Amino acid sequence: MDNPDKTSSLFTQQSNHLNDVEKKQLKKLFEKAQKNNSIMWQDVITFHNPWLRENGL
Fold first, then answer.
1. What pLDDT, in 10s, does the model give residues 25-52?
2. CA separation (Å) from 13 to 38, 55, 56, 57?
3. I need a surface site. Which of 14, 18, 25, 28 has the fewest CB within 10 A?
């Protein structure tokens, strides 16, 4: 999550950039979901905006 080579920030539906406190809260939610064998993932597919423009999308 904090590897700048992979991403510039961690985000959720509510926030585009999580601070350290929000990251810790999210980590607790993931740990709880894992403990309960719950699914806590939703796929996100992103595209490079210039490529979308070039292809009329």
1. 989 988 998 899 887 777 788 888 998 8
2. 19, 28, 27, 23
3. 14
Task: Assign residue 27 a region (left: φ > 0; alpha: ψ between -120 and 50; beta: otherwise).
Answer: alpha
Residue 1 pLDDT greater than 60, yes or no: no
**CB neighbourhood size of 29 (10 A):** 12
Give the tens place of pLDDT for each residue, 14-32.
Answer: 888 888 899 899 899 889 9
For tokens 């423009």, name the residue.
53
Alpha-helical regions (H) of the chain: 20-35, 49-54
